[in-house]
Specification:
Blueprint: H1 2-12, H2 15-45, H3 53-70, H4 72-97, H5 105-122, H6 128-157, H7 161-181, H8 206-212, H9 231-247, H10 250-260, H11 262-267, H12 272-297, H13 307-310, H14 313-323, H15 328-352, H16 358-372, H17 375-381, H18 410-425
Length: 426
């Protein structure tokens, strides 16, 4: 009777609730464990042992939250970091869907920003309606080209994408530094930075857009305090575009099959080489666009030598994509998380006197706990009626086409059959 009641509770539980729990359980647990571990680090390293140690932890995390999302100004500062992080995370995530590990988002962002800067500084007399689209398109093409190199080497030469993306990162960093330090783009007086973009090559701040529209009958915003630019809206649109590509197109389904089981994809006749190239082209395009929009939206609208190599956005994106599990909502939430940690670390240092490197420790711990996957341990501690049910193994219908495998790979056969059925529906 008890088992019947438990099955009844599980049956009445909506499927989306179970799916949401399975999707969020692992990242949320990793974040909670990382925060607890970070608190232990604070307790061990706090200089004044006479004070209440737990109040120090609450003070540090409270200052971190206030500096990230506690006030409208802090939210604006956080969005400044979140916007480029979303683009870089999309770049890493779509590659992960195909089973590729794109560590080159940082270099692709640098190439996209430099390409847009070259256009903006060359055609300074063009009007905004022509110059801004030209810069955006150029950055997309430059980033796609840089990512396409990786895709080509992976698909046709078998070169490992981790090695090629790391090497291309440094080529991008030092190549952009070479262009920044020399004419015709370098600023006068021997400084290692480019000239600032002309006004018609920049995108407005959200505060400016508010003041020009809703600010006519609502309180105006201070443009010196609210520094978030309209690239956040472009980032949200790109998340929707990413969802459409990965979930509502045949190409997205083929990419998922390649990432899950390349043998099944090959047996089903999916063009693996072409799709790998296309994935890296799209990944580079996302990152290149993010680099350009950050340049066009943030003062001082100029590139600085060695700044690309020191920028953590491209590498934070790897963590954000893994924590977000490459899903659109997960990418948004994880980008807010890591952007908030970066943005709030300054306030945590100023108010609670905790070294801002603590957020780097927390980020590393989140990835560690994601990889360790403690979910099975905690699942055993739950009551039976709260444990998620295992999904039944999919069995092909009697009229499904038979796909043979030379290696006897039953998993590959199942994937290929599923793909064939999906293509019939399309």
């Amino acid at each position: 009777m008890a088992q019947t009641g438990e099955r009844g509770v599980q049956a009445r539980m909506p499927a989306w609730v179970r799916n949401l729990g399975e999707s969020l359980g692992r990242p949320v647990l990793a974040v909670v464990l990382a925060i607890i571990a970070g608190a232990i680090v604070i307790l061990i390293t706090w200089p004044n042992k006479a004070l209440d140690p737990f109040s120090n932890v609450f003070s540090a995390y409270g200052a971190l939250f206030i500096g990230s999302f506690g006030t409208p100004v802090s939210i604006s500062n956080t969005l400044v970091r979140v916007s480029p992080l979303i683009f870089a995370t999309l770049s890493v995530a779509i590659a992960l869907r195909a089973g590729l590990f794109n560590i080159g988002a940082a270099g692709q962002m640098a190439v996209g920003a430099m390409a847009a800067d070259m256009v903006g500084l060359t055609y300074i007399h063009w009007p905004a309606w022509l110059l801004i689209p030209a810069m955006v398109i150029t950055s997309i093409l430059a980033g796609a080209f840089w990512g396409g190199i990786v895709g080509f080497l992976k698909a046709w030469r078998g070169a490992h994408e981790v090695v090629t993306t790391i090497m291309l990162n440094w080529i991008a960093f030092w190549g952009t530094d070479y262009l920044i330090d020399g004419p015709p783009f370098t600023a006068p007086l021997g400084v290692n930075q480019t000239n600032p973009l002309p006004p018609q090559a920049t995108i407005p701040l959200v505060a400016d857009l508010w003041n020009r529209t809703l600010g006519s009958f609502l309180p105006k915003l201070d443009t010196f305090s609210y520094t978030a630019d309209v690239s956040i809206f472009v980032a949200l649109f790109c998340i929707i575009l990413y969802w459409f590509i990965t979930s509502r197109t045949t190409f997205g389904y083929e990419v998922r099959v390649i990432g899950l089981n390349p043998k099944a994809a090959r047996y089903a006749g999916i063009p693996i080489k072409r799709n790998i190239l296309l994935v890296m082209l799209i990944a580079g395009a996302f990152a290149g666009l993010g680099g350009a929009l950050r340049l066009m939206g943030q003062f001082s609208y100029q590139l600085t030598a060695t700044a690309a190599a020191a920028d953590p956005t491209g590498f934070d994106a790897i963590a954000a994509a893994l924590v977000g599990r490459t899903t659109p909502v997960g990418i948004l939430l994880s980008s807010l998380l890591f952007g908030g940690l970066r943005s709030g670390s300054t306030n945590m240092q100023a108010v609670a006197h905790v070294d801002p490197n603590l957020v780097l420790i927390i980020e590393g711990l989140i990835i560690y706990f994601m990889a360790a996957d403690f979910i099975p341990i905690f699942r055993r501690l739950l009551p039976p009626w709260l444990r998620p049910r295992r999904r039944p193994v999919m069995v092909a219908p009697p009229d499904a086409p038979i796909v043979s495998s030379v290696n006897g790979d039953s998993a590959g056969q199942g994937q290929a059959i599923g793909l064939a059925e999906r293509q019939k529906e399309v």
